[in-house]
Design brief:
Keywords: Phosphoprotein
CATH topology of the largest domain: TIM Barrel
Structural class: alpha/beta
Protein name: Diguanylate cyclase (GGDEF)-like protein
Number of helices: 20
CATH class of the largest domain: Alpha Beta
Number of domains: 3
Shape: elongated
CATH superfamily of the largest domain: EAL domain
GO biological process, one term: phosphorelay signal transduction system
Organism: Marinimicrobium koreense
Radius of gyration: 34 Å
CATH architecture of the largest domain: Alpha-Beta Barrel
Strand content: 15-25%
Helix content: 40-55%
Cofactor: Mg(2+)
Length: 567
Protein backbone atom coordinates (compact mmCIF):
# COMPACT_ATOMS: atom_id res chain seq x y z
CA UNK A 1 0.00 0.00 0.00
CA UNK A 2 1.03 3.64 -0.46
CA UNK A 3 2.63 5.45 2.53
CA UNK A 4 -0.25 8.00 2.52
CA UNK A 5 -3.73 6.48 2.28
CA UNK A 6 -6.69 8.87 1.98
CA UNK A 7 -10.00 7.59 3.42
CA UNK A 8 -13.44 9.13 2.95
CA UNK A 9 -15.60 8.49 6.04
CA UNK A 10 -19.36 8.89 5.39
CA UNK A 11 -21.24 8.89 8.71
CA UNK A 12 -23.62 11.23 10.50
CA UNK A 13 -21.94 10.91 13.93
CA UNK A 14 -18.87 12.94 14.81
CA UNK A 15 -18.00 10.53 17.62
CA UNK A 16 -17.47 7.70 15.16
CA UNK A 17 -15.19 9.94 13.11
CA UNK A 18 -13.07 10.81 16.17
CA UNK A 19 -12.88 7.15 17.22
CA UNK A 20 -11.66 6.03 13.78
CA UNK A 21 -9.19 8.90 13.60
CA UNK A 22 -7.73 7.79 16.93
CA UNK A 23 -7.44 4.15 15.81
CA UNK A 24 -5.75 5.15 12.57
CA UNK A 25 -3.24 7.36 14.39
CA UNK A 26 -1.94 4.28 16.20
CA UNK A 27 -0.88 2.63 12.91
CA UNK A 28 2.73 3.72 12.52
CA UNK A 29 3.95 2.02 9.31
CA UNK A 30 1.30 3.73 7.14
CA UNK A 31 0.12 7.34 7.14
CA UNK A 32 -3.70 7.49 6.95
CA UNK A 33 -5.62 10.67 6.18
CA UNK A 34 -9.30 10.56 7.20
CA UNK A 35 -11.84 12.97 5.66
CA UNK A 36 -15.32 13.17 7.20
CA UNK A 37 -18.53 13.63 5.15
CA UNK A 38 -21.62 13.78 7.39
CA UNK A 39 -24.40 13.48 4.78
CA UNK A 40 -25.48 10.55 2.62
CA UNK A 41 -26.85 12.73 -0.14
CA UNK A 42 -24.15 14.40 -2.18
CA UNK A 43 -21.59 11.71 -1.28
CA UNK A 44 -21.62 9.97 -4.66
CA UNK A 45 -19.52 12.58 -6.53
CA UNK A 46 -16.85 12.35 -3.81
CA UNK A 47 -16.80 8.56 -4.12
CA UNK A 48 -16.26 8.79 -7.87
CA UNK A 49 -13.45 11.32 -7.56
CA UNK A 50 -9.80 10.35 -7.65
CA UNK A 51 -9.10 11.84 -4.21
CA UNK A 52 -9.64 8.74 -2.04
CA UNK A 53 -8.12 5.29 -1.77
CA UNK A 54 -11.04 3.85 0.22
CA UNK A 55 -14.51 4.75 1.54
CA UNK A 56 -15.85 3.85 5.00
CA UNK A 57 -19.65 4.04 4.79
CA UNK A 58 -22.25 3.85 7.56
CA UNK A 59 -25.07 1.61 6.32
CA UNK A 60 -27.99 2.78 8.55
CA UNK A 61 -29.03 6.47 8.54
CA UNK A 62 -32.26 6.40 10.57
CA UNK A 63 -35.92 6.63 9.58
CA UNK A 64 -35.54 3.52 7.44
CA UNK A 65 -32.88 5.06 5.20
CA UNK A 66 -29.91 2.91 4.22
CA UNK A 67 -26.86 3.30 1.98
CA UNK A 68 -27.94 0.46 -0.32
CA UNK A 69 -28.92 2.82 -3.18
CA UNK A 70 -25.57 4.58 -2.91
CA UNK A 71 -23.73 1.23 -3.07
CA UNK A 72 -25.81 0.10 -6.05
CA UNK A 73 -25.15 3.34 -7.93
CA UNK A 74 -21.43 3.03 -7.27
CA UNK A 75 -21.39 -0.55 -8.53
CA UNK A 76 -23.54 0.18 -11.61
CA UNK A 77 -21.31 3.08 -12.63
CA UNK A 78 -18.14 1.01 -12.16
CA UNK A 79 -16.75 2.86 -9.14
CA UNK A 80 -13.03 2.09 -8.77
CA UNK A 81 -12.78 3.04 -5.07
CA UNK A 82 -13.33 0.15 -2.60
CA UNK A 83 -16.17 0.71 -0.10
CA UNK A 84 -16.23 -0.85 3.41
CA UNK A 85 -19.64 -0.82 5.12
CA UNK A 86 -20.10 -0.20 8.87
CA UNK A 87 -23.13 -1.07 11.04
CA UNK A 88 -23.88 -1.14 14.75
CA UNK A 89 -24.34 -4.90 14.90
CA UNK A 90 -23.86 -7.98 12.77
CA UNK A 91 -26.91 -8.71 10.65
CA UNK A 92 -26.85 -11.54 8.13
CA UNK A 93 -29.34 -9.85 5.81
CA UNK A 94 -27.42 -6.56 5.82
CA UNK A 95 -24.19 -8.39 5.18
CA UNK A 96 -25.68 -10.09 2.13
CA UNK A 97 -27.28 -6.88 0.84
CA UNK A 98 -24.12 -4.82 1.23
CA UNK A 99 -21.77 -7.31 -0.40
CA UNK A 100 -24.25 -7.97 -3.22
CA UNK A 101 -24.61 -4.21 -3.74
CA UNK A 102 -20.85 -3.83 -4.17
CA UNK A 103 -19.30 -3.40 -0.72
CA UNK A 104 -15.74 -4.73 -0.41
CA UNK A 105 -16.04 -5.68 3.27
CA UNK A 106 -18.02 -5.25 6.49
CA UNK A 107 -17.13 -3.80 9.96
CA UNK A 108 -19.16 -3.83 13.23
CA UNK A 109 -19.07 -0.60 15.22
CA UNK A 110 -17.92 -1.13 18.79
CA UNK A 111 -15.90 -4.21 17.77
CA UNK A 112 -13.18 -2.44 15.83
CA UNK A 113 -9.60 -2.34 17.07
CA UNK A 114 -6.47 -1.02 15.40
CA UNK A 115 -5.35 -4.38 14.08
CA UNK A 116 -8.76 -5.31 12.62
CA UNK A 117 -9.21 -1.87 11.07
CA UNK A 118 -5.75 -1.83 9.49
CA UNK A 119 -6.14 -5.34 8.10
CA UNK A 120 -9.64 -4.63 6.70
CA UNK A 121 -8.47 -1.44 4.98
CA UNK A 122 -5.37 -3.07 3.51
CA UNK A 123 -7.20 -6.16 2.26
CA UNK A 124 -10.01 -4.08 0.71
CA UNK A 125 -7.57 -1.86 -1.18
CA UNK A 126 -5.40 -4.76 -2.37
CA UNK A 127 -8.45 -6.82 -3.40
CA UNK A 128 -9.86 -3.88 -5.37
CA UNK A 129 -6.55 -3.37 -7.17
CA UNK A 130 -6.43 -7.08 -8.04
CA UNK A 131 -10.02 -6.95 -9.30
CA UNK A 132 -9.26 -3.89 -11.42
CA UNK A 133 -6.13 -5.53 -12.84
CA UNK A 134 -8.01 -8.72 -13.73
CA UNK A 135 -10.89 -6.69 -15.14
CA UNK A 136 -8.49 -4.72 -17.33
CA UNK A 137 -6.89 -7.93 -18.60
CA UNK A 138 -10.36 -9.28 -19.39
CA UNK A 139 -11.76 -6.15 -20.99
CA UNK A 140 -8.83 -4.36 -22.66
CA UNK A 141 -6.76 -5.37 -25.65
CA UNK A 142 -3.19 -6.05 -24.50
CA UNK A 143 -1.59 -4.75 -27.71
CA UNK A 144 -3.40 -1.41 -28.05
CA UNK A 145 -4.74 -0.83 -24.51
CA UNK A 146 -8.19 -0.01 -25.90
CA UNK A 147 -11.37 -1.97 -25.05
CA UNK A 148 -11.68 -5.48 -26.48
CA UNK A 149 -14.78 -7.11 -27.93
CA UNK A 150 -16.10 -8.09 -24.46
CA UNK A 151 -16.10 -4.56 -23.04
CA UNK A 152 -17.30 -3.13 -26.37
CA UNK A 153 -20.26 -5.51 -26.32
CA UNK A 154 -21.19 -4.24 -22.83
CA UNK A 155 -20.95 -0.62 -24.02
CA UNK A 156 -23.04 -1.42 -27.08
CA UNK A 157 -25.76 -2.98 -24.92
CA UNK A 158 -25.66 0.11 -22.66
CA UNK A 159 -25.98 2.41 -25.70
CA UNK A 160 -29.04 0.45 -26.85
CA UNK A 161 -30.70 0.83 -23.44
CA UNK A 162 -30.04 4.58 -23.39
CA UNK A 163 -31.29 5.02 -26.96
CA UNK A 164 -34.46 3.08 -26.10
CA UNK A 165 -35.04 5.24 -23.05
CA UNK A 166 -34.38 8.57 -24.78
CA UNK A 167 -35.78 7.63 -28.20
CA UNK A 168 -32.38 8.48 -29.65
CA UNK A 169 -30.01 6.92 -32.14
CA UNK A 170 -26.33 6.08 -32.43
CA UNK A 171 -24.03 4.65 -35.07
CA UNK A 172 -21.86 1.55 -35.03
CA UNK A 173 -18.86 1.49 -37.35
CA UNK A 174 -17.09 -1.75 -38.26
CA UNK A 175 -13.59 -0.98 -39.57
CA UNK A 176 -11.31 -3.41 -41.40
CA UNK A 177 -7.81 -2.44 -42.55
CA UNK A 178 -6.94 -2.84 -46.25
CA UNK A 179 -3.45 -4.02 -47.11
CA UNK A 180 -2.44 -4.84 -43.53
CA UNK A 181 -1.72 -8.48 -44.32
CA UNK A 182 0.83 -7.51 -46.96
CA UNK A 183 2.60 -5.29 -44.42
CA UNK A 184 2.58 -8.08 -41.88
CA UNK A 185 3.93 -10.62 -44.41
CA UNK A 186 6.55 -8.29 -45.88
CA UNK A 187 7.90 -6.55 -42.76
CA UNK A 188 7.11 -9.02 -39.98
CA UNK A 189 4.72 -9.23 -37.05
CA UNK A 190 6.58 -6.65 -34.94
CA UNK A 191 6.00 -4.04 -37.63
CA UNK A 192 2.41 -5.23 -37.95
CA UNK A 193 1.87 -4.87 -34.20
CA UNK A 194 3.31 -1.36 -34.27
CA UNK A 195 0.97 -0.43 -37.13
CA UNK A 196 -2.04 -1.80 -35.20
CA UNK A 197 -1.08 0.36 -32.20
CA UNK A 198 -0.71 3.45 -34.39
CA UNK A 199 -4.09 2.74 -36.02
CA UNK A 200 -5.70 2.52 -32.57
CA UNK A 201 -4.19 5.89 -31.65
CA UNK A 202 -5.39 7.44 -34.91
CA UNK A 203 -8.90 6.13 -34.35
CA UNK A 204 -8.92 7.68 -30.87
CA UNK A 205 -7.97 11.00 -32.48
CA UNK A 206 -11.13 10.79 -34.61
CA UNK A 207 -13.41 10.22 -31.61
CA UNK A 208 -15.48 12.67 -29.66
CA UNK A 209 -15.52 12.46 -25.85
CA UNK A 210 -18.73 10.41 -25.86
CA UNK A 211 -17.52 7.85 -28.44
CA UNK A 212 -15.96 4.42 -27.82
CA UNK A 213 -13.39 2.50 -29.86
CA UNK A 214 -12.46 -1.18 -29.54
CA UNK A 215 -10.28 -3.76 -31.21
CA UNK A 216 -12.31 -6.80 -32.17
CA UNK A 217 -9.23 -8.83 -33.09
CA UNK A 218 -6.68 -8.99 -35.91
CA UNK A 219 -7.00 -5.82 -38.00
CA UNK A 220 -10.67 -5.17 -37.16
CA UNK A 221 -11.91 -2.28 -35.02
CA UNK A 222 -15.31 -0.98 -33.99
CA UNK A 223 -16.37 2.57 -33.18
CA UNK A 224 -19.49 3.53 -31.26
CA UNK A 225 -20.75 7.03 -32.08
CA UNK A 226 -23.37 8.10 -29.56
CA UNK A 227 -25.82 11.00 -29.94
CA UNK A 228 -25.67 11.07 -33.74
CA UNK A 229 -28.37 13.28 -35.21
CA UNK A 230 -27.89 12.82 -38.97
CA UNK A 231 -26.13 10.69 -41.55
CA UNK A 232 -24.01 13.54 -42.87
CA UNK A 233 -22.17 13.91 -39.54
CA UNK A 234 -21.54 10.16 -39.45
CA UNK A 235 -20.20 10.29 -43.01
CA UNK A 236 -17.83 13.13 -42.07
CA UNK A 237 -16.40 11.02 -39.25
CA UNK A 238 -15.99 8.06 -41.62
CA UNK A 239 -14.14 10.29 -44.09
CA UNK A 240 -11.91 11.56 -41.31
CA UNK A 241 -11.09 7.97 -40.28
CA UNK A 242 -10.25 7.02 -43.86
CA UNK A 243 -7.99 10.06 -44.14
CA UNK A 244 -6.16 9.36 -40.85
CA UNK A 245 -5.77 5.61 -41.44
CA UNK A 246 -4.57 6.29 -44.99
CA UNK A 247 -1.84 8.73 -43.92
CA UNK A 248 1.77 7.42 -44.26
CA UNK A 249 3.25 5.22 -41.52
CA UNK A 250 6.94 5.55 -40.71
CA UNK A 251 8.00 2.35 -38.96
CA UNK A 252 11.48 0.87 -38.74
CA UNK A 253 12.89 3.29 -41.28
CA UNK A 254 10.22 2.46 -43.88
CA UNK A 255 7.29 4.49 -45.16
CA UNK A 256 4.18 2.43 -45.83
CA UNK A 257 0.48 2.99 -46.42
CA UNK A 258 -2.70 1.06 -45.80
CA UNK A 259 -6.39 1.85 -46.16
CA UNK A 260 -9.61 0.82 -44.50
CA UNK A 261 -13.16 -0.25 -45.28
CA UNK A 262 -15.96 0.93 -42.99
CA UNK A 263 -19.43 -0.52 -42.54
CA UNK A 264 -22.00 1.59 -40.69
CA UNK A 265 -25.20 0.49 -38.95
CA UNK A 266 -27.38 3.20 -37.37
CA UNK A 267 -29.66 2.28 -34.48
CA UNK A 268 -32.53 1.46 -34.70
CA UNK A 269 -32.87 1.11 -38.51
CA UNK A 270 -29.61 -0.83 -38.75
CA UNK A 271 -30.63 -3.32 -36.06
CA UNK A 272 -32.46 -3.28 -32.74
CA UNK A 273 -30.09 -5.51 -30.77
CA UNK A 274 -26.32 -5.84 -30.42
CA UNK A 275 -26.10 -8.98 -32.55
CA UNK A 276 -28.01 -7.43 -35.46
CA UNK A 277 -26.07 -4.17 -35.31
CA UNK A 278 -22.69 -5.94 -35.38
CA UNK A 279 -23.78 -8.30 -38.14
CA UNK A 280 -25.22 -5.54 -40.30
CA UNK A 281 -22.25 -3.20 -39.81
CA UNK A 282 -19.96 -6.10 -40.73
CA UNK A 283 -22.02 -6.79 -43.85
CA UNK A 284 -21.89 -3.12 -44.85
CA UNK A 285 -18.11 -3.22 -44.37
CA UNK A 286 -17.82 -6.10 -46.84
CA UNK A 287 -19.86 -4.07 -49.30
CA UNK A 288 -17.38 -1.22 -48.87
CA UNK A 289 -14.51 -3.66 -49.36
CA UNK A 290 -15.67 -4.35 -52.91
CA UNK A 291 -14.43 -0.88 -53.88
CA UNK A 292 -10.87 -0.44 -55.14
CA UNK A 293 -9.96 2.23 -52.58
CA UNK A 294 -10.87 2.96 -48.96
CA UNK A 295 -14.59 3.46 -48.69
CA UNK A 296 -17.55 3.42 -46.32
CA UNK A 297 -21.05 2.03 -46.73
CA UNK A 298 -24.23 2.36 -44.68
CA UNK A 299 -26.44 -0.63 -43.94
CA UNK A 300 -29.63 0.27 -45.79
CA UNK A 301 -33.05 -1.24 -46.33
CA UNK A 302 -31.77 -2.60 -49.62
CA UNK A 303 -29.16 -4.48 -47.65
CA UNK A 304 -31.90 -5.65 -45.28
CA UNK A 305 -33.59 -7.24 -48.26
CA UNK A 306 -30.30 -8.81 -49.25
CA UNK A 307 -29.98 -10.30 -45.75
CA UNK A 308 -33.43 -11.81 -45.95
CA UNK A 309 -32.62 -13.18 -49.40
CA UNK A 310 -29.39 -14.67 -48.06
CA UNK A 311 -31.20 -16.36 -45.16
CA UNK A 312 -33.74 -17.80 -47.59
CA UNK A 313 -30.91 -18.90 -49.86
CA UNK A 314 -29.18 -20.62 -46.96
CA UNK A 315 -32.34 -22.54 -46.07
CA UNK A 316 -32.89 -23.53 -49.70
CA UNK A 317 -29.26 -24.58 -50.08
CA UNK A 318 -29.49 -26.91 -47.09
CA UNK A 319 -32.56 -28.44 -48.70
CA UNK A 320 -30.71 -28.72 -52.03
CA UNK A 321 -28.10 -30.96 -50.41
CA UNK A 322 -30.79 -33.22 -48.99
CA UNK A 323 -32.87 -33.32 -52.18
CA UNK A 324 -30.01 -33.83 -54.67
CA UNK A 325 -30.70 -30.56 -56.49
CA UNK A 326 -26.98 -29.89 -57.06
CA UNK A 327 -25.26 -31.06 -60.22
CA UNK A 328 -22.04 -30.62 -62.17
CA UNK A 329 -21.43 -29.49 -65.71
CA UNK A 330 -18.07 -29.87 -67.45
CA UNK A 331 -16.18 -27.61 -69.82
CA UNK A 332 -13.38 -29.19 -71.90
CA UNK A 333 -9.87 -27.75 -71.95
CA UNK A 334 -7.93 -27.96 -75.22
CA UNK A 335 -4.18 -28.42 -75.70
CA UNK A 336 -3.27 -25.90 -78.41
CA UNK A 337 -0.19 -27.81 -79.51
CA UNK A 338 -1.99 -31.09 -80.21
CA UNK A 339 -5.60 -29.96 -80.51
CA UNK A 340 -6.63 -32.67 -78.04
CA UNK A 341 -9.04 -32.35 -75.13
CA UNK A 342 -6.79 -32.92 -72.11
CA UNK A 343 -8.87 -31.80 -69.14
CA UNK A 344 -12.31 -30.90 -67.83
CA UNK A 345 -13.31 -28.18 -65.42
CA UNK A 346 -16.14 -29.18 -63.09
CA UNK A 347 -18.67 -26.34 -62.66
CA UNK A 348 -21.31 -26.45 -59.93
CA UNK A 349 -24.97 -25.88 -60.75
CA UNK A 350 -28.14 -25.76 -58.64
CA UNK A 351 -31.55 -26.61 -60.03
CA UNK A 352 -33.50 -24.26 -57.78
CA UNK A 353 -37.20 -25.20 -57.55
CA UNK A 354 -38.32 -21.58 -58.08
CA UNK A 355 -35.44 -19.73 -59.74
CA UNK A 356 -34.36 -22.40 -62.18
CA UNK A 357 -30.77 -23.40 -62.95
CA UNK A 358 -28.31 -21.28 -60.95
CA UNK A 359 -24.63 -20.73 -61.61
CA UNK A 360 -22.29 -21.25 -58.63
CA UNK A 361 -21.45 -17.54 -58.37
CA UNK A 362 -25.09 -16.90 -57.39
CA UNK A 363 -24.91 -18.99 -54.21
CA UNK A 364 -21.30 -20.02 -53.43
CA UNK A 365 -20.74 -17.08 -51.06
CA UNK A 366 -23.74 -18.23 -49.00
CA UNK A 367 -22.26 -21.73 -48.86
CA UNK A 368 -18.95 -20.30 -47.65
CA UNK A 369 -20.49 -17.99 -45.05
CA UNK A 370 -22.64 -20.76 -43.55
CA UNK A 371 -20.03 -23.54 -43.60
CA UNK A 372 -22.05 -25.60 -46.10
CA UNK A 373 -19.10 -25.34 -48.47
CA UNK A 374 -17.37 -28.28 -46.76
CA UNK A 375 -20.20 -30.74 -47.44
CA UNK A 376 -20.72 -29.31 -50.93
CA UNK A 377 -16.98 -29.42 -51.63
CA UNK A 378 -16.64 -33.09 -50.73
CA UNK A 379 -19.72 -33.90 -52.81
CA UNK A 380 -18.20 -32.08 -55.80
CA UNK A 381 -14.91 -34.00 -55.55
CA UNK A 382 -16.66 -37.35 -55.26
CA UNK A 383 -19.09 -36.62 -58.11
CA UNK A 384 -16.35 -35.22 -60.35
CA UNK A 385 -14.11 -38.25 -59.72
CA UNK A 386 -16.93 -40.65 -60.58
CA UNK A 387 -17.68 -38.76 -63.79
CA UNK A 388 -13.96 -38.65 -64.61
CA UNK A 389 -13.84 -42.45 -64.41
CA UNK A 390 -16.85 -42.59 -66.75
CA UNK A 391 -15.27 -40.19 -69.27
CA UNK A 392 -11.94 -42.00 -69.27
CA UNK A 393 -13.63 -45.36 -69.72
CA UNK A 394 -16.03 -44.24 -72.44
CA UNK A 395 -13.57 -42.03 -74.35
CA UNK A 396 -10.37 -44.04 -73.75
CA UNK A 397 -8.50 -40.84 -72.85
CA UNK A 398 -6.24 -39.94 -69.93
CA UNK A 399 -8.10 -36.80 -68.82
CA UNK A 400 -7.46 -34.46 -65.92
CA UNK A 401 -10.34 -33.14 -63.78
CA UNK A 402 -10.10 -29.56 -62.47
CA UNK A 403 -12.20 -28.66 -59.41
CA UNK A 404 -12.57 -25.21 -57.87
CA UNK A 405 -11.61 -25.31 -54.21
CA UNK A 406 -12.77 -22.75 -51.64
CA UNK A 407 -10.24 -21.46 -49.14
CA UNK A 408 -12.81 -22.19 -46.42
CA UNK A 409 -12.29 -25.90 -47.10
CA UNK A 410 -8.65 -25.62 -46.04
CA UNK A 411 -9.85 -24.89 -42.51
CA UNK A 412 -11.30 -28.40 -42.29
CA UNK A 413 -8.85 -30.61 -40.40
CA UNK A 414 -10.23 -33.66 -42.24
CA UNK A 415 -9.46 -32.27 -45.72
CA UNK A 416 -6.37 -34.35 -46.53
CA UNK A 417 -7.82 -37.50 -44.96
CA UNK A 418 -11.18 -37.18 -46.74
CA UNK A 419 -9.64 -36.49 -50.15
CA UNK A 420 -7.18 -39.39 -49.80
CA UNK A 421 -10.09 -41.66 -48.92
CA UNK A 422 -12.12 -40.56 -51.95
CA UNK A 423 -9.22 -41.09 -54.37
CA UNK A 424 -8.50 -44.52 -52.89
CA UNK A 425 -12.14 -45.60 -52.86
CA UNK A 426 -12.73 -44.60 -56.50
CA UNK A 427 -9.28 -45.73 -57.65
CA UNK A 428 -8.49 -42.31 -59.14
CA UNK A 429 -4.77 -41.42 -59.43
CA UNK A 430 -3.99 -38.14 -57.68
CA UNK A 431 -2.32 -36.76 -60.82
CA UNK A 432 -5.70 -36.77 -62.56
CA UNK A 433 -7.23 -34.35 -60.06
CA UNK A 434 -6.38 -30.64 -60.15
CA UNK A 435 -7.59 -28.05 -57.65
CA UNK A 436 -8.09 -24.46 -58.78
CA UNK A 437 -7.55 -21.55 -56.37
CA UNK A 438 -7.93 -17.89 -57.22
CA UNK A 439 -4.78 -15.81 -56.86
CA UNK A 440 -6.50 -13.38 -54.46
CA UNK A 441 -7.77 -16.13 -52.13
CA UNK A 442 -4.34 -17.75 -52.05
CA UNK A 443 -2.53 -14.55 -51.09
CA UNK A 444 -5.16 -13.58 -48.51
CA UNK A 445 -4.83 -16.98 -46.79
CA UNK A 446 -1.26 -17.92 -47.69
CA UNK A 447 -0.24 -19.56 -44.40
CA UNK A 448 -3.40 -21.64 -44.16
CA UNK A 449 -3.39 -22.79 -47.79
CA UNK A 450 0.33 -23.53 -48.09
CA UNK A 451 0.14 -25.69 -44.96
CA UNK A 452 -2.34 -28.02 -46.71
CA UNK A 453 -0.96 -27.83 -50.25
CA UNK A 454 2.14 -29.91 -49.60
CA UNK A 455 0.46 -32.97 -48.01
CA UNK A 456 -2.13 -32.86 -50.79
CA UNK A 457 0.63 -32.71 -53.41
CA UNK A 458 2.15 -35.84 -51.84
CA UNK A 459 -1.08 -37.59 -52.87
CA UNK A 460 -0.26 -36.61 -56.46
CA UNK A 461 -2.85 -33.82 -56.52
CA UNK A 462 -1.88 -30.73 -58.49
CA UNK A 463 -2.90 -27.07 -58.22
CA UNK A 464 -3.61 -24.30 -60.69
CA UNK A 465 -3.83 -20.60 -59.95
CA UNK A 466 -7.03 -19.08 -61.31
CA UNK A 467 -7.42 -15.37 -62.21
CA UNK A 468 -3.65 -15.04 -62.58
CA UNK A 469 -2.65 -11.39 -62.78
CA UNK A 470 -5.57 -10.09 -60.71
CA UNK A 471 -3.85 -10.39 -57.34
CA UNK A 472 -0.39 -9.95 -55.89
CA UNK A 473 1.19 -13.41 -55.97
CA UNK A 474 4.97 -13.08 -55.82
CA UNK A 475 7.46 -15.00 -57.97
CA UNK A 476 8.75 -16.65 -54.80
CA UNK A 477 5.35 -18.14 -53.98
CA UNK A 478 4.88 -19.37 -57.53
CA UNK A 479 8.23 -21.13 -57.30
CA UNK A 480 7.93 -22.64 -53.84
CA UNK A 481 4.29 -23.73 -53.79
CA UNK A 482 3.21 -26.85 -55.74
CA UNK A 483 1.37 -24.87 -58.42
CA UNK A 484 1.44 -26.62 -61.80
CA UNK A 485 -0.48 -24.13 -63.93
CA UNK A 486 -1.79 -20.56 -64.07
CA UNK A 487 -5.03 -19.41 -65.65
CA UNK A 488 -4.97 -15.93 -67.16
CA UNK A 489 -7.73 -13.75 -65.76
CA UNK A 490 -10.47 -13.53 -68.39
CA UNK A 491 -10.61 -9.73 -68.02
CA UNK A 492 -7.28 -9.49 -69.80
CA UNK A 493 -8.67 -11.26 -72.87
CA UNK A 494 -11.54 -8.90 -73.63
CA UNK A 495 -9.38 -6.14 -75.14
CA UNK A 496 -6.66 -8.25 -76.74
CA UNK A 497 -7.61 -7.38 -80.31
CA UNK A 498 -7.59 -3.59 -79.88
CA UNK A 499 -5.33 -2.86 -76.87
CA UNK A 500 -1.58 -3.02 -77.42
CA UNK A 501 -1.01 -2.51 -73.69
CA UNK A 502 -3.13 -5.54 -72.81
CA UNK A 503 -1.32 -7.60 -75.44
CA UNK A 504 2.02 -6.67 -73.94
CA UNK A 505 0.78 -7.47 -70.46
CA UNK A 506 -0.57 -10.91 -71.38
CA UNK A 507 2.62 -11.70 -73.33
CA UNK A 508 4.68 -10.81 -70.25
CA UNK A 509 2.46 -12.99 -68.06
CA UNK A 510 2.84 -15.97 -70.40
CA UNK A 511 6.63 -15.55 -70.56
CA UNK A 512 6.85 -15.18 -66.79
CA UNK A 513 4.83 -18.32 -66.17
CA UNK A 514 6.88 -20.32 -68.69
CA UNK A 515 10.12 -19.13 -67.11
CA UNK A 516 8.85 -20.44 -63.80
CA UNK A 517 7.98 -23.79 -65.40
CA UNK A 518 4.20 -23.33 -65.29
CA UNK A 519 1.57 -24.38 -67.81
CA UNK A 520 -0.43 -21.37 -69.08
CA UNK A 521 -4.18 -21.73 -69.52
CA UNK A 522 -6.56 -19.16 -71.01
CA UNK A 523 -10.23 -19.34 -70.02
CA UNK A 524 -13.33 -17.68 -71.44
CA UNK A 525 -11.94 -17.78 -74.99
CA UNK A 526 -14.87 -16.77 -77.18
CA UNK A 527 -13.50 -15.72 -80.57
CA UNK A 528 -11.19 -17.16 -83.19
CA UNK A 529 -9.13 -13.96 -83.03
CA UNK A 530 -8.47 -14.49 -79.33
CA UNK A 531 -7.47 -18.08 -79.96
CA UNK A 532 -5.09 -17.19 -82.79
CA UNK A 533 -3.42 -14.42 -80.81
CA UNK A 534 -3.02 -16.53 -77.63
CA UNK A 535 -1.68 -19.49 -79.59
CA UNK A 536 0.88 -17.27 -81.31
CA UNK A 537 1.85 -15.82 -77.92
CA UNK A 538 2.64 -19.31 -76.60
CA UNK A 539 -0.44 -20.09 -74.49
CA UNK A 540 -0.54 -23.85 -73.76
CA UNK A 541 -4.21 -24.64 -73.15
CA UNK A 542 -7.60 -22.97 -73.58
CA UNK A 543 -11.21 -23.34 -72.64
CA UNK A 544 -14.27 -21.31 -73.46
CA UNK A 545 -17.44 -21.08 -75.52
CA UNK A 546 -15.41 -21.00 -78.74
CA UNK A 547 -14.72 -24.69 -78.17
CA UNK A 548 -17.57 -25.87 -75.98
CA UNK A 549 -20.07 -24.59 -73.44
CA UNK A 550 -20.31 -26.34 -70.04
CA UNK A 551 -22.36 -29.55 -70.42
CA UNK A 552 -23.68 -32.41 -68.25
CA UNK A 553 -21.49 -35.49 -68.19
CA UNK A 554 -23.45 -37.46 -70.82
CA UNK A 555 -23.38 -34.60 -73.34
CA UNK A 556 -19.74 -33.73 -72.72
CA UNK A 557 -18.88 -37.39 -73.19
CA UNK A 558 -20.52 -37.25 -76.62
CA UNK A 559 -18.66 -33.98 -77.36
CA UNK A 560 -15.30 -35.53 -76.50
CA UNK A 561 -16.01 -38.55 -78.70
CA UNK A 562 -16.94 -36.32 -81.61
CA UNK A 563 -13.89 -34.10 -81.08
CA UNK A 564 -11.58 -37.10 -81.18
CA UNK A 565 -13.74 -39.01 -83.66
CA UNK A 566 -14.11 -41.90 -81.22
CA UNK A 567 -16.60 -44.49 -82.39
Amino acid sequence: MDRIVKILFIDGEEGEYLLLADLLSKIHHTDYQLVWHDRLDGALPAIFGDDYDLVLLDYYWGNGHTAQDLLTAAKTQACTTPIVVMTSEMETEVDREAIRAGAADYLIKGHIDTQLLERTLRYAIERKRTEQHLSRLAHYDTLTDIPNRILFRDRLEHAIRLADRDQGQFALMFIDLNGFKQVNDSFGHDTGDTMIRVCADRLKECMRRSDSVARMGGDEFTLLLENTDNGANIAHIAEKIIERIGAPYHIGGYEMRIGCSIGIAVYPDGGRDAESLLKNADMAMYQAKQQDDSSYRFFTEAMNKAVRLQLRMESDLRAALRLNQLSLEYQPRIDLNTGDIVAMEALLRWQHPERGLLDAKEFISVAEDTGLINDIGYWIVERACKDLCLLQRECQLDLRMAVNLSVRQFRDEQLVHRLAGTLNQLNVPGRNLEFELTEASLMDNLDLVSLCMRPLSHLGLEFSLDQFGSGSCSFLHLQRLPIRAVKIDSRFLAALNHSVDDQRLVTAMINLAHNLGKVVIAESVETQEQRDWLQAAGCDQMQGYLFCAPQPVDKVCHTVKQWHSIA
